[in-house]
């Protein structure tokens, strides 16, 4: 379809990686590991592969720094896996990585094989072309299973001695594309809680006015949840940060009624009705404070209890004020005349596990003026934007490497519990 002879080697390698079908439910991790090892060999990087769960490799390609363990390392993380496709809705083969009018079409083009290759190709430029010698160890890490929650990938890896041995000071991870003219930078995430609220009460014949039945109580408790939802939605529309940026989804807590169940027969008042909520708690709302609200709403009626279907027990953010890593990122963007838009991720990424391990993480996928196509049909990335991102990392890595600030060597300072 296209001639790769005149193509930038970074683009060729990007397309090769896109052609490995690391798509759920049966990602080709064997094929991906082999290709990543090859890329590592080409660049003269040390390779280690950890199968924390058999068949689910964590591939780490390391560029050794001159200062060894005396300085914290940089970990450049990306996930290997991609989400499934609905082939009938694609105009291109999602695993051919065809280039059409400068657009590279493939599942994973934005989420996030672009970033994994940009890290490696930035090292090619710095190491092989410019002879740069990093002070810090730089680990390019490729993890499995992020798209299905990261439970057999990053979540387990942060509890291993191999993770500790990385001596991480900062992890770069994924962000999102942005239709606006700025790179989004994510320094925190919302905490997902799924809860089931059970309302118990008197039962009886459907023809009577019986006191204390579940239906009216459920209605009153539900009203409390939904009033909070309205309040948060209003904040999203009106809220403004101190620096003038309007609020985004990550700045507010969403509460959505997603399940309703109960009843046995049309003429019988049931003794229990249940409702389920999908709640995403913003770092602006302390988890303990939201828990107290939940307790109060449920305690407002007799016979109401709740249980967690999914509980995120803690949530950490990477603070940006006075953060030397963030300053290095800002300086890089400024020198390249690129605007940054720091914000909170509306959903979840592997960064939550990293921050929980008390290492700061910043999520950035350098794509601006680009429609957000992750998980969409016809996912593509413009070749020119891919190469811009490569240049960005080529400029960023030395700036991060050369951060001189004692606080950068103490990662715990750059994760704050909310
Ligand atoms: Zn992703």
Automatic annotation (TrEMBL):
<dbReference type="InterPro" id="IPR001261">
    <property type="entry name" value="ArgE/DapE_CS"/>
</dbReference>
<dbReference type="InterPro" id="IPR002933">
    <property type="entry name" value="Peptidase_M20"/>
</dbReference>
<dbReference type="InterPro" id="IPR052083">
    <property type="entry name" value="Aminoacylase-1_M20A"/>
</dbReference>
<dbReference type="GO" id="GO:0005737">
    <property type="term" value="C:cytoplasm"/>
</dbReference>
<keyword id="KW-0862">Zinc</keyword>
<keyword id="KW-0963">Cytoplasm</keyword>
<feature type="binding site">
    <location>
        <position position="111"/>
    </location>
    <ligand>
        <name>Zn(2+) 1</name>
    </ligand>
</feature>
<dbReference type="InterPro" id="IPR011650">
    <property type="entry name" value="Peptidase_M20_dimer"/>
</dbReference>
<dbReference type="GO" id="GO:0046872">
    <property type="term" value="F:metal ion binding"/>
</dbReference>
<keyword id="KW-0378">Hydrolase</keyword>
<feature type="active site">
    <location>
        <position position="81"/>
    </location>
</feature>
<dbReference type="InterPro" id="IPR036264">
    <property type="entry name" value="Bact_exopeptidase_dim_dom"/>
</dbReference>
<feature type="binding site">
    <location>
        <position position="174"/>
    </location>
    <ligand>
        <name>Zn(2+) 1</name>
    </ligand>
</feature>
<feature type="binding site">
    <location>
        <position position="111"/>
    </location>
    <ligand>
        <name>Zn(2+) 2</name>
    </ligand>
</feature>
<protein>
    <recommendedName>
        <fullName>N-acyl-aliphatic-L-amino acid amidohydrolase</fullName>
        <ecNumber>3.5.1.14</ecNumber>
    </recommendedName>
</protein>
<feature type="domain" description="Peptidase M20 dimerisation">
    <location>
        <begin position="189"/>
        <end position="301"/>
    </location>
</feature>
<dbReference type="Pfam" id="PF01546">
    <property type="entry name" value="Peptidase_M20"/>
</dbReference>
<keyword id="KW-0479">Metal-binding</keyword>
<comment type="similarity">
    <text>Belongs to the peptidase M20A family.</text>
</comment>
<feature type="binding site">
    <location>
        <position position="375"/>
    </location>
    <ligand>
        <name>Zn(2+) 2</name>
    </ligand>
</feature>
<feature type="binding site">
    <location>
        <position position="147"/>
    </location>
    <ligand>
        <name>Zn(2+) 2</name>
    </ligand>
</feature>
<dbReference type="Pfam" id="PF07687">
    <property type="entry name" value="M20_dimer"/>
</dbReference>
<feature type="binding site">
    <location>
        <position position="79"/>
    </location>
    <ligand>
        <name>Zn(2+) 1</name>
    </ligand>
</feature>
<dbReference type="GO" id="GO:0004046">
    <property type="term" value="F:aminoacylase activity"/>
</dbReference>
<feature type="active site" description="Proton acceptor">
    <location>
        <position position="146"/>
    </location>
</feature>
<dbReference type="GO" id="GO:0006520">
    <property type="term" value="P:amino acid metabolic process"/>
</dbReference>
<dbReference type="InterPro" id="IPR010159">
    <property type="entry name" value="N-acyl_aa_amidohydrolase"/>
</dbReference>
């Amino acid at each position: 379809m296209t001639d790769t002879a005149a193509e930038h080697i970074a683009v060729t390698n990007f397309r090769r990686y896109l052609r490995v079908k690391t798509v759920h439910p049966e990602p080709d991790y064997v094929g991906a590991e082999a290709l990543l090892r090859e890329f590592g060999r080409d660049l003269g990087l040390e390779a280690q592969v950890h199968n924390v769960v058999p068949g689910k490799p964590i591939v780490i390609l390391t560029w050794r720094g001159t200062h060894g363990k005396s300085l914290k390392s940089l970990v450049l993380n990306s996930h290997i896996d991609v989400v499934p496709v609905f082939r009938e809705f694609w105009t291109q083969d999602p695993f051919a990585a065809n280039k059409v009018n400068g657009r590279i079409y493939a599942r994973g083009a934005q989420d996030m094989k672009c970033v994994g290759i940009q890290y490696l190709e930035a090292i090619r430029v710095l190491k092989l072309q410019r002879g740069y010698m990093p002070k810090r160890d730089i680990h390019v890490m490729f993890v499995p299973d992020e798209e299905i929650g990261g439970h057999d990938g990053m979540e387990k890896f942060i509890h291993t001695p191999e993770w500790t041995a990385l001596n991480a000071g900062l992890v770069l991870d994924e962000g999102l594309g942005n239709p606006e003219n700025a790179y989004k930078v994510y320094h925190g995430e919302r905490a997902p809680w799924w809860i089931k609220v059970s309302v118990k009460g008197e039962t009886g014949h459907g023809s009577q006015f019986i006191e204390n039945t579940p239906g009216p109580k459920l209605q009153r408790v539900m009203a409390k949840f939904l009033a909070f939802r309205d309040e948060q939605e209003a904040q999203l529309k009106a809220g403004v940060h101190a620096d003038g940026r309007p609020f985004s989804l990550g700045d507010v807590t969403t509460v959505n009624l997603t399940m309703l169940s109960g009843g046995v027969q049309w003429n019988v008042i049931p003794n229990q009705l249940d409702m389920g909520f999908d709640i995403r708690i913003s770092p602006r709302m302390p988890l303990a404070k939201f828990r107290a609200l939940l307790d109060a709403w449920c305690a407002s009626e007799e016979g109401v209890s709740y249980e967690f279907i999914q509980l995120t027990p803690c949530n950490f953010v990477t603070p940006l004020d006075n953060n030397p890593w963030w300053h290095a990122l800002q300086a890089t963007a400024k020198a390249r005349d690129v605007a940054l838009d720091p914000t909170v991720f509306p959903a979840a990424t592997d960064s939550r596990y990293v921050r929980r391990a008390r290492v700061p993480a910043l999520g950035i996928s350098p794509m601006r003026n680009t429609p957000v196509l992750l998980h969409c049909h016809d996912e593509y990335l413009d070749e020119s934007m891919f190469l811009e991102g490569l240049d960005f990392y080529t400029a960023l890595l030395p700036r991060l490497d050369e951060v001189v600030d004692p606080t950068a060597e103490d990662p715990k300072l750059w994760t704050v519990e909310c």
